[in-house]
């Protein structure tokens, strides 16, 4: 019998016991486990490493940002590429993005440096209360998701209320501050391109508040003794406007496209960009938030750094609703007005359960013939 379908164990107690170690998945691996604990076991029918292999015929678009600020023709080409990628994939990779490769490498080293400290040191940062600027734990949705992910994470909001240096751990303190500045600059440029791709003024999305919030997440995926039984990150969509992702050389990230999983191969010079749920909402489905996941792997640790453009649970005056210029008789508003905080509270309460958090906020739209 599949362990996850058995009712003969107390799942909550096992989750609590794991949580109380404050050492995450890395602690299990450091202890030398050879089998995946039940709380991490994915039902065989949903296992990512079973069934059809990922398609090798489709490749994620790669967009070169070189020259977009000097050559109007080049910029128009890139805007068209962004429009096509976010409208058909919800994802793309970008090169010549302006952040030096040396800084990307330092950021990955900073993540490794934090997680590979002595466990007694990292325990001091372990928290689920949300009271601290820098939060480290394993699985933000540990008690609500149907299966625990094989990863540990630190989370740090860098805007609108950035932490003081002493509120950050030494191994990643300096690079986290500097990387965040560069990512904010890059994200602002990207949102200008996305605004133009929606046939809006370049500053439209920024003026709405899409760059008001920025959170940096450092993910650490330890090697997994039985990757066929676990998942690095469960199928989900992102809870933000856009995500800019830095991944290392190991791989495992996949996007769901045309009813099949597609690998997003690592490129040391590239960053991955994807639309989040909030961009899908305000673009009235012009751009969409694609499902993606990360496989567990015997090779590890894998690290990635996700920059989320969103204010999260911070209370702001921003209201998210379909942009009026994108609403018409032929394309009525598909979502009701919500606050970012309202959306985040719903997303966090349901966890990474494989369903879209946007479903709760959809409006019933009558077909044109009945209006």
Description:
This protein has 371 residues and is an alpha+beta fold. The protein has one domain: B-lactam Antibiotic, Isopenicillin N Synthase, Chain (Jelly Rolls, Sandwich), CATH 2.60.120. 27% of the residues lie in helices and 18% in strands. The chain has an 8-stranded mixed beta sheet. Strands 6-11-8-9 form a 4-stranded antiparallel beta sheet, with no helix packed on it. Strand 8 and strand 9 form a beta hairpin. The protein is globular. The termini are far apart.
The largest sheet is: 8 strands, mixed
How many distinct folded domains? 1
Shape: globular
| CATH architectural type | Sandwich
- The share of residues in helices is 25-40%
Q: What is the β-strand count?
A: 14
Regarding CATH, which class? Mainly Beta
**Beta fraction:** 15-25%
What is CATH's topology name? Jelly Rolls
Query: What is the H-and-E element order?
Result: HHEHEHHEEHHEEEEEEHEEEEH
The overall average pLDDT, rounded, is 92
Terminal CA distance: 53 Å
Low-confidence parts = 1-6
Radius of gyration: 20 Å
Number of helices: 9
Task: Itemize the secondary structure elements and their pairings.
Layout: H1 11-21, H2 24-30, E1 62-64, H3 72-88, E2 91-95, H4 101-115, H5 119-122, E3 135-137, E4 152-159, H6 173-197, H7 204-208, E5 214-221, E6 231-236, E7 242-247, E8 253-257, E9 260-263, E10 271-275, H8 277-282, E11 292-295, E12 302-308, E13 319-320, E14 338-339, H9 340-350
Parallel strand pairs: 1-2
Antiparallel strand pairs: 2-10, 3-4, 4-5, 5-12, 6-11, 7-10, 7-12, 8-9, 8-11, 13-14
Helix pairs in contact: 3-6, 4-6
């Amino acid at each position: 019998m599949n362990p996850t379908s058995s009712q003969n164990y107390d799942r909550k107690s096992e989750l609590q016991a794991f949580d109380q170690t404050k050492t995450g998945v890395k602690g299990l691996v450091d202890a030398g486990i050879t089998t995946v604990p039940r709380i991490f076991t994915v039902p065989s029918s949903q296992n990512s490493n079973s069934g059809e292999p990922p398609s090798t015929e489709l490749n994620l678009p790669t967009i070169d940002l070189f020259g977009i600020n000097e050559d109007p023709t080049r910029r128009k080409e890139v805007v068209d590429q962004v429009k096509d990628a976010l409208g058909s994939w919800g994802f793309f990779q970008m090169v010549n993005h302006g952040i030096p490769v040396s800084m990307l490498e330092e950021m990955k080293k900073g993540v490794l440096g934090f997680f590979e400290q002595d466990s007694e040191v990292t325990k001091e940062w372990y928290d689920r209360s949300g009271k601290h600027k820098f939060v480290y734990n394993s699985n933000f949705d540990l008690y609500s998701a149907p299966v625990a992910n094989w990863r540990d994470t630190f989370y740090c909001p860098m805007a609108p209320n950035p932490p003081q240096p002493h509120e950050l751990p030494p191994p990643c303190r300096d690079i986290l501050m500097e990387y965040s500045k560069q990512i904010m600059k890059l994200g602002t440029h990207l949102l200008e391109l996305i605004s133009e791709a929606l046939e809006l003024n370049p500053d439209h999305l920024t003026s709405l508040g899409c760059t008001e919030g920025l959170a940096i997440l450092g993910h650490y995926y330890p090697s997994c003794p039985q990757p066929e039984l676990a998942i690095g990150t469960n199928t989900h969509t992102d809870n933000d406007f856009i995500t800019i992702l830095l991944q290392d050389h190991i791989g495992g990230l996949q996007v769901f496209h045309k009813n099949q999983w597609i690998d997003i191969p690592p490129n040391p010079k590239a960053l991955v960009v994807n639309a989040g749920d909030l961009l899908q909402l305000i673009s009235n489905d012009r751009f969409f938030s694609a499902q993606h996941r990360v496989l567990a792997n015997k090779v590890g640790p894998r690290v990635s750094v996700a920059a989320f453009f969103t204010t999260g649970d911070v209370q702001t005056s921003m209201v998210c609703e379909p942009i009026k210029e994108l609403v018409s008789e032929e394309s009525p508003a598909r979502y009701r007005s919500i606050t970012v905080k309202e959306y985040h509270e719903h997303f966090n309460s349901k966890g990474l359960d494989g369903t879209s958090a946007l479903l709760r906020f959809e409006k019933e739209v009558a077909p044109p013939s009945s209006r």
